[in-house]
């Protein structure tokens, strides 16, 4: 996959320091911009693969490294590293990633989309609330963690969420309440989909073994079409 499309590890200024990320471009060389936000495991191969898959769909996709090169190998380690990331620092780093992505000449859109998973799904909503009009599409997959904002009034993006009916970490009832809160506080277009699956059902490399291929395929197709429709 990587041999067919341009990709590179990049650095960019963010939150008063130098940040790192993984950037993938489509074969055409240009396209709309999408931020990909990692799970609590870090910038692992699965997130790079998601970034590559978005490039294959025509996007210029950037996955910022929120952990500064650290990756987790089990749930306990992931929880510790996630706790070490202050919510404010993560939000500032992602703001710098938006600045960087929109500055690239190959990015054809005036806004970005954002897609994220688990902790990254929470930070997708944080980024949309923080960046307002600059984020036109927000796609949280089972968004949990300290990244979830308390106030969604700044959201201007259309929101499409993907959640498991059997998610023990973030129950579907809570996700439905969140969808209503986003809709009520922001007035944004909000649609959450629910699947016969548990947490992290879209991660085919998840060490916790929750991957559900059919649900993952359906959620991915919906997410890609949504990003194509909304990011301009």
TrEMBL record:
Pfam families: DLH
Superkingdom: Bacteria
InterPro entries: AB_hydrolase_fold (IPR029058), Dienelactn_hydro (IPR002925), Dienelactone_hydrolase-like (IPR051049)
Domain (Dienelactone hydrolase) ranges: 21-229
Molecular function terms from GO: hydrolase activity
Name this polypeptide is given: Carboxymethylenebutenolidase
């Amino acid at each position: 996959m990587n041999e067919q499309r341009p990709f590179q590890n990049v650095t960019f200024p963010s939150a008063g320091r130098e940040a790192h990320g993984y950037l993938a471009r489509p074969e055409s060389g240009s396209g709309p911009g999408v931020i990909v936000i990692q799970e609590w495991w870090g910038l692992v191969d699965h997130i790079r693969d998601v970034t590559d898959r978005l490039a294959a769909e025509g996007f210029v996709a950037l996955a910022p490294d929120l952990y500064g090169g650290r990756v987790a190998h089990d749930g306990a380690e992931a929880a510790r590293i996630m706790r070490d990331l202050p919510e404010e620092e993560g939000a500032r780093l992602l703001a710098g990633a938006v600045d960087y992505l929109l500055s690239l000449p190959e990015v054809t859109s005036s806004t970005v989309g954002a897609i994220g998973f688990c902790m990254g799904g929470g930070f997708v909503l944080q980024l949309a609330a923080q960046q307002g009009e600059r984020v036109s599409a927000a796609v949280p997959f089972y968004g949990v963690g300290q990244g979830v904002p308390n106030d969604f009034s700044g959201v201007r993006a259309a929101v499409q969420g993907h959640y498991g009916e059997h998610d023990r970490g973030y129950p579907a009832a809570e996700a439905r309440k969140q969808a209503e809160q986003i809709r009520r506080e922001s007035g944004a277009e909000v649609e959450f989909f629910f699947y016969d699956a548990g947490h992290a059902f879209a991660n085919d490399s998840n060490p916790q073994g929750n991957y559900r291929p059919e649900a993952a395929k359906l959620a991915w197709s919906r997410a890609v079409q949504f990003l194509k429709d909304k990011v301009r």
